[in-house]
Amino acid sequence: MHAMQDEAGTPLTPVHPSPSTPAPDHPSAGRRRLYAVLLGLAAVVLVLDQATKVWALRSLTPGEKVDLLGSGIRLNLIRNPGAAFSIGDGATWVLTAVSVAILVWVVVGARRVGNTPWAVALGLLLGGALGNLVDRFFREPGPGRGHVVDFIDYFGWFVGNVADIAIVVGAGIIMVLAYRGTSIAGPVHRAEHADG
Length: 196
Known about the structure:
Helices cover 58% and strands 11% of the residues. The protein is an alpha+beta fold. Strands 1-2-3-4 form a 4-stranded antiparallel sheet. The longest helix is centred in the N-terminal third of the chain and has 35 residues, at 25-59.
């Protein structure tokens, strides 16, 4: 009798709820790690961008090109009121607004990030956008109209900076992720779905 009661009573015992309690901690811990990657990378890009701009302003003379990698990649200091290829020279306020819009998009996307590649891509975009926005708001001729410091000359086609490199690399990663169908909120490993 006792054996039958024990067997019948086992499903009613509170054994199963206890292991499921710590499960919610794993996603939040993983999300915190992704936030750390995103924000840490953005901070590194921002600091590196501003530090190299300070160095360029102190060490380079506008109009005097310095060979870096042969005559292809040179150091060439300019103050750029527009975007790449000198587009929008007279629309600095518009470019500032566009940069702020991109920044907002990255911040909103960061709240949904669920895997490391997306965290890296958004971190690069965030750091690059902040790097150039610092110039727009705090450099001459005034807030919102500041000229971006560019000093890396690519084959005479255009001149950029570290923030631009981060933005291009981040955008490239996003293009690859989109091509592969990796959602910003989803996991990278598809084997789990195949097994399930």
